[in-house]
User: What shape does this take?
Amino acid sequence: MATVHTPAASREPPKETPANAGSPILTLKSTAFRAEREPAWRRLEALITRAEKGGLASLNARELLRLPILYRAVLSSLSVARAISLDRNLLTYLESLSGRAYFLVYGGRSNALSAIGKFLAVTLPAAVRAARWYIALAALCMVLGAVLGYVLTIGNLDWFYTFVSDGMSQGRNPTADTETLRRPLFYDGRGLGERLTAFASFLFTHNARIGIMAFALGFALGAPTVLLMFFNGLTLGAFIALYDSRGLGADLIGWLLIHGVTELGAIVLCGAAGLMLGRAVIFPGEYTRLQNLARAGRRAAVIVIGAVLMLFIAALLEGFGRQLILVTEQRFLVAGVTAVLWALYFVRSGRGAS
Amino acid sequence: MQATQPIGPRSRLSRRIETPEGVILPIELGQRGERAVAFILDFLIVIGIIIVLYLLLILVIVGGKFSGIGWLFALVMLASFFIRSFYFAFFELRWQGTTPGKRTMGLRVIDRAGGPLTPQAVLARNLMREVEVFLPITVLLSGTFKGEIWETLATIGWLAVFMFMPLFNRDALRVGDMIAGTWVVTAPKALLLRDLADGEAADTAEAPPSKFYTFTTKQLDAYGIYELQTLEGVLRDQRPTAREVRAEVAKRIRNKIGMPPADPANPDTERFLAEFYTAMRARLERRMLFGVRRRDKHDKR
Assistant: This one.
């Protein structure tokens, strides 16, 4: 029976002959393999250690280019080592090194500007187009709420108190006289001065949080999202009914829509994102619920970011546009123009790119 | 791929991912406690920045007759909103899935399926914080509970489901992770030690690079991979008790493979173990090349 004198076939002869050279030195294939590849591992390790401390920015252009090459080399070393080596420390080291390199190589992109540009031009409109049925459903919930709120309130103004909280109406309720109701509609902001700018940013943060919540609560099977859309509609309908009963209906709608096209659009988009999550949980289809939630969640998050941007624009229109434009017809014109612009953007932008 | 994994204790937090190159990598999920600490660190940073912003605003208001207070107030409010909502997303995008808190705790976010971490996933998992964290805090702090006691309890229960979701699933996913298809892992570092079978690299006093012992195949086949790697652990052991452990292990091996016990005056433990390790590894690796991966001494191959 042969003993295990594995000859060092692939290795150069030892540089110096040991003093007590008697029987031949045993050099394993795995040892020779390690000796050959180790310098590349060490280079990658040095790069990673630096990048982990100071971020990818601490590597220069050449090192950045080398990172994925060294990463693939180490992955291939790992595969070979798993097949030929039983040195546990070596395997653990290669796994850890591959893992750390993987985190850096696949950890996401850092070029924020081009990412934002692509997001606005392609990703966002595409995500909105793909979600058109969810958007239709969310809008339907809100419209149903508005119609119901209007019909009930115009029949009996007492319903107003059910749909609109005191904090929200701020005295604009059925007991107020017509002039009190009319004045804020054509208020040009004089006297209050700078408080308006703060008010606009308050409106934005408030609405943005509602939008994000409509999305996030969709996780609970979408039910809270539907309710949120519906109640929003009820409040809207009740207000319109109150003003309509005093003959101020068109003026109110102009006052609302100058920013409302953008704002309600954003809220509907958030609602649609929430419904996407809800549907992913209820009807998982060919994936597991968790996988499906993950797929829907990423697409929905894109829409929510878009909606937050829209709310930002809406707050500007509300805080400034409404105080500068005091004629109802002109307000309708602005509302119409924003509607057309948003529709064009979402329907046309980035069509060929994907 | 089970067979190609090294043998060792696998904790309940060990998982595997497949990289886009098709290689299976073991990963370790972050512990819930570490993640909580990382979050608290980040949260304190966010709150700290916002407080500083408002303090500056108050200083300006108190200090002088600056005319643009309204604008400034609006600006501070907007800045607070963006910092609160996008702090985490910003860092996770810029720093490959880490934030200052996560980096301190050695944690990072990766894709659950092993693919690249996309900006969409980062945004999705962090927007979810609005209901997981900020909504409960607002509700609890604002004291809006004037209604029935059961209403209060229902609200708290509802919020607790979101907040404590990581405690209720094996992978410690919070709702944001579920939405985004991500999980939070640790990045442990392993050192590359010297190759025990590399005669040249060995410390000559401990294990001379020449072969002193000869083992027959039958003797080497007494053990499998598990025993080999256990022996590796014993040989790498640096603790003060290591010498005695090695002496005991050498005695047992000699007994098992039918070699006479060592001379008590000169046991030669280190050299015996080193050479037995090298010979056994050579034998097992060679058989592995021919497709036989002998798991342990009970494996009859």
Notes: Chain A touches chain B through 94 residues (CB under 8 Å).
